[in-house]
Amino acid sequence: MPEEHSHTIMAVDELQAIIQRCQILEEADFKGEDFNLFQVAGQKCLEDGYAAQLLEVIQNEKNKVIIKNMGWNLISPLVRCIFMYKQEDDKREHCLRILDQLAQVWF
């Protein structure tokens, strides 16, 4: 359990670290590395079952510019997770809500 717990914290912490780093940048200053780190951290959270934490990040108004620019990188792993989880699974519901949030930011 401790190893699994530290893996979880690591995935969420990685996501938080890239978000905090990008919050202080201007939109024009986002680099390719930022997009890659965001995608890897977000995908890891999805695959490890931490869609609820990712949803919180996406819903946070302070992250709107980041999500508008980088959120599209999560579409592929998000769709995989939606199909992976069963209909009644809360994780699937979180994934669907993330997709809805992304659509609202873009449109």
From TrEMBL:
InterPro entries reported in the protein's UniProt record: Glomulin/ALF4, YAP-bd/ALF4/Glomulin
Superkingdom of origin organism: Eukaryota
GO cellular component terms, semicolon-separated: cytoplasm
Annotated GO MF terms: ubiquitin-protein transferase inhibitor activity
Name assigned to this protein: Glomulin
